[in-house]
Design a protein that fits this description.
The protein is mostly helical. The chain has one domain: Serine Threonine Protein Phosphatase 5, Tetratricopeptide repeat (Alpha Horseshoe), CATH 1.25.40.10. The chain has 13 helices and no strands. The radius of gyration is 17 Å and the shape is globular.
Amino acid sequence: MRYKMLLIGLLVLAGGGTPNFIWADETLDADLIHEYKKILSELSSEPEDTATLKETGKLYYFIGEVSHDRDTIKKAVSILENVLEKESGDAEVKVYLGSAYTLKARDFPLRWLANITPLGWIRIYYVRSGVNMMNDGVKADELNPVARLIRGMTRVNLPKAFLGFKGGMEDLELVLSWIKCPALNAKYDDIITDKGFISDASYRIGEVYFKEGDREKAVMLFKNAASLIPDSPIGRAAVRRLNE
């Protein structure tokens, strides 16, 4: 549980889509990778049970998502698939794994060649498989805020041709509504009232609004992210955004 809450507080859910990470903040990327690797190192001394493997798989997902390192994403996929074999009903694992599949498409080698040859169908397969897996995960636990946030951020980052943006925004706005009124999702009150989760979710969703031209909502969310945990990678990134 201790590591789960650490991960919630450092959530890089964001992104998870193709073709690009939604923001361009190299300092944030470096800070996040450092934090994830630190937790990964701590986990290495824990018993290798299913719970530990689940958190390890998430960490490799986070690191690969930020770094665009294909080997790291492959490792995340392998671990999460292993966990899913043992815990077939785990909604979060399904959503993480589905998002990881879309990252395989994002970081597909020789993408320019894949786009003009039959190899392009492999990328499409990864994305379609990922979206289906995420949908299965959310269907298994529709109130899970982590699953909703990951699926939402992944879908808004997918190419427009996949028609996922509207559904992604619905996920993200639902998460914001739970944060604003935790009584709407008492089942996950521990997560939606956690300062780390709120800060990260606010920053991630703020970036989406910023990209879409809604500066007012973006600024409001950046201020929220900056105020909750100022001395954190996300808090500092939010401050930088506000000072731009």
